[in-house]
Design a protein that fits this description.
The protein is α+β, with helices and mostly antiparallel strands and 225 residues long. It has a single domain (2-224), classed as Cyclic Phosphodiesterase, Chain: A (Alpha-Beta Complex), CATH 3.90.1140. Helices cover 33% and strands 25% of the residues. The strands form two sheets. Strands 3, 4, 5, 6 and 9 form a five-stranded mixed beta sheet that branches. Strands 2-1-7-8 form a four-stranded antiparallel beta sheet. A hairpin with a 7-residue loop joins strand 7 and strand 8.
Length: 225
């Protein structure tokens, strides 16, 4: 069993619908199942994780820590955090992966992710050698490798970038074909403002099982950072 803390747009929002229909599955399970995507293997991996932006990467609970403790701490955390206006959405190629990202980097969402990494690390079982080896296949920088050892994930703090992944890594030929499809599919939301107004606990019940939304915590709407 693994858990992760992700941002995922709420069911009912257009961004949620477009993300679920692109990936061919709804991690919330609250809307009719989207039609299976014709993109096949190009989206299999992001589809398993569900449409989201990683805030704290998947982890198993440490021995002696329970899910109820984790969920209670998560609720306390989200109640104290304001919603964040991250700016307009853009479609970008991130090292071969297509993703929806803010046009400009948001220090507020960076700070939220950093706080989340630190706040919940006491619940995380340390990564085993198999996980470390798998992560290191990505040819990490020395700093990323240090973060992997300490925090179980290499892309934290200044290495973090808020993004909602749409594909696996594409070849140049695949990118030339898929990028226009993604631009058409997400045309309604590209250039629109994105508000990070909730965080979600996603759960993976076993290796290679799909991640699903287990719990949602709304961020304060009194003001947007």
């Amino acid at each position: 069993m693994r858990y992760a803390i992700y941002f995922a747009p709420a069911p009912g929002l257009r961004l949620h619908h477009l993300g679920a229909s692109w990936l061919g599955r709804d991690a919330f399970g609250q809307s009719p199942a989207p039609k299976k995507s014709p993109l096949g293997a190009l989206i299999d991996d992001p589809a398993r994780y569900g449409f989201h932006a990683t805030i704290k990467a998947p982890f198993a609970l440490k021995d002696g820590r329970s899910y109820s403790e984790f969920a209670s701490a998560f609720d306390r955390f989200t109640k104290l955090r304001p919603a964040i206006a991250v700016g307009k959405i853009a479609l970008r190629d991130m090292d071969g992966y297509l993703a929806l990202v803010p046009e400009l980097q948001s220090s507020a969402v960076d700070d939220l992710a950093s706080a989340c990494v630190e706040q919940f690390d006491g619940f995380r079982r340390p990564a085993d050698e198999a996980e470390l080896t798998r992560r290191r296949k990505a040819k990490l920088t020395p700093q990323q490798d240090l973060y992997l050892e300490k925090w179980g994930y290499p892309y934290v703090f200044e290495e973090f970038r808020f993004h909602m992944t749409l594909t696996r890594r594409l070849t140049p030929e695949e990118r030339q074909s898929v990028m226009p499809q993604a631009q058409r599919h997400f045309a309604e939301v590209i250039g629109r403002e994105l508000i990070v107004d909730q965080l979600c606990i996603f759960r993976e019940v076993g290796p290679q099982h799909p991640f699903t939304v287990e719990h949602t915590g709304k961020l304060s709407l009194g003001r947007a950072a």
